[in-house]
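Review box. Two proteins, two foldings.
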Amino acid sequence: MRFISSLIIVLSVLLFDTVLEQLFASRHIQNQRIAVVEKLGLLRAQLEGSLNANLHLLNGVSAYISINPDITPTEFNTLAAKLMENKHQLRNIAAAPDLVVRYIYPLEGNQAALGLDYTNNPQQRAAALQARDLNTIVVAGPLNLAQGGVGLIARLPVFYDDKSGQRQFWGMISSVLDSNKLFDQTGISSRPLGLDIAIRGKDSKGPEGEVFFGNPNLFNTPSTLLRVNLPYGSWQMAARPQQGWDTQSPYSWYIRLIFLTLGLIMLYASHLRRRQLAHERLNQATFFNAFEESPLGTAITDPANGNVLNINRSLRQMAGIADPQLDELSKPPESQLPESILALLHRADRPWSECSNPGWSRRRKAVALFSLRTSDPGRYSVVNGISRYHRAQSVAESTAIVETGYRPHQRRRHYNQR
């Protein structure tokens, strides 16, 4: 039993410790995710801002051509050079009347793109026609460029009004963005802020697109995901701490120390309680052994109703009752005593009383009852055969062997009154 109670305490402490540690670990991971979202949100804002700044340059070219559809190469070069003076990631700006590249700035290093027919290029045809049909900027790639290297291609359709006021398709404005430069200048390539980052959504396809930056496994493991908005479509960024998610709360050792201390206190308190109960059982065993072996006839009665709870061997002998057999142990003691002794025991309002029974022997012709009240719920009644000559001496002896709640001179005064 002692082992079981100790085991229950240990298991309870371990259970509560585990639950509390998991709660703090979950909150710790949640705080990490919030921090990653804040950092990734900052990088996303920088990426979207840089992309939009570059793409707005194309809107300027498109607006100029829509009112000057007969633009000359010189006019185009002057306009493009002016737009590309500021900081940007544009490698070039090209114009493709009727979807064939006729103008490009700067020409140096981009000669291979001149004469490119989008309708005959399998890699770029679908994106070019999509931009025309959607009438918005469509970002394709990253992909291999005709002039060499890898980059993003932004395409914007150009429409103009003819002399009759009908809206006509002029062609396409496109620009190649240096994707590596874009990611470097926005701080994504340098693993900023202690994060591992990956981006997917090739050709602006969002979560369905291919991964084109970073470790693809970030999308297969618990990571923070954010959407990067494009003029049409989107990308998706994934990020997590470079060292991975810390699943252990910084307060774990404090929690374990607290529960260890609590467990030791509970075990010690349980040990003290077991010692107290053992001491009480020993006291009870000592009392009932003394009660049973006492030479004085003794009974324990309930002060609430006067019922006899137990009688000892001396009282059974005095009343002529044999020791109960095994099958008689369940019988109430009250059913075994003569009426004369029961009447004596029920006189709980007197410190002592006297009665006799004609059927008793001369030696037990008269008996006296001493009703002794103690701090326990029961009342201890001592019954002994006495003579008138030894009555006062018996009273004194009985009060000496049983601890009572009143003084001996009170008993003697009551006797003298009788």
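Next protein.
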Amino acid sequence: MRFHLSPTVRRALRRVVPFGVIWFVLAQVFAISDYAAGGGAVATTDGSAIEVDAGVRLFANLAVAVVGCLVGAVELLFLNRRLAARSLGTKLVAKTLFYTIFLTGVVVVTFPVAAALEMGTGLADPRVWDRLQAFAISKESLSTGVQLVTSLVVSLFYAEISEHMGPRVLTNFLIGRYHTPKEERRVFLFSDMKSSTSITERLGHARYFEFLRAYYNALAGAVVDHEGEVYQYIGDEIVVSWTETDGLRDANCVRCALAMKRDLRGRAAWFEDRFGVAPDFRAGLQVGPVTTGEIGALKKEIVFTGDVLNQTARIQALCKPLGADILVGDELASRLGDGEGWGVRSVGHQELRGKDQPVELFALEDPVAGAADEPERSGVGLTRPSVPPRPVGASGILSGGPWPPDRSDPPGR
């Protein structure tokens, strides 16, 4: 039986494991520094320090890696969530108190174990606890405290950078994956909130910012569960990307779009109660080649360039005039294969600015939502209607459907 980790667990591991690596690497640096400073010996006249043999070293290395991972798990999965709405001052005080207690506990737990290993005895031996008492009032305890605090500060600094950039993007920066531009194929999802202007006017800018934050939080689970990466937040728009392999595996990209819709429907009552309005969005999806690389003079970013981004933005802009919430481009639709829980119907060939030939688009439909115009399906997969596509005007848009002037050529695409 094949062992398979869920996308949520894999993402958690990608975020937490680097903490263990940071603590482990710093422990080796500190060990080398202590060895050099002590001329190859780690001993004191009061007998409080532990002489490091193979067994103690193995335990120490495992302990620091585990402690690092625990710090990562607590920081990212607990403290950040509990303190998200608190002021900076409250966060600093709360984290200082917590980590002071936490690191003290680490020393109280690990030092007796290491001392017992060195002495070849058990934890019940009174000499072990005498060593701990002597260590607590020795200069070695100060040195250990400085090392622990240094490891903590470095790992928390990494956490802040990682949370702002995303763990995958930060890893790509650190290993220089895109220092030289690379060509690859990716799937993109462009989503745009419905009626955002009227919602802003209704809520006011400060209240709308809270609304937008809650909106993005509601969408985050679907992106993680379907292995997507948030490429950009642009006002009320979100751009999600996958490698072609990840996006097509189990139709992750279209399942993500549908899951985002379902999650918003599930939170609709909460939004109505808190803000008086529930959000919704329209989205476009397409696959194609991009060039990926680091770019920027005053600050560096990993960016994608290619026609597929323009296509996807313009596909999304056609959702409203074509009367569809989610549109899929022809190239992506042809690659999706069979799938359960969703269907598509052709809305005809549409002209996209910058494309010489019209592109056939497909409306993605979710049976769970009880769509009124669910397509005919023989089991699962892509289906095409047995009737001609809806009438299209000379511009490639449905007759009578105006092109939104502010979306015809989205900036930065």
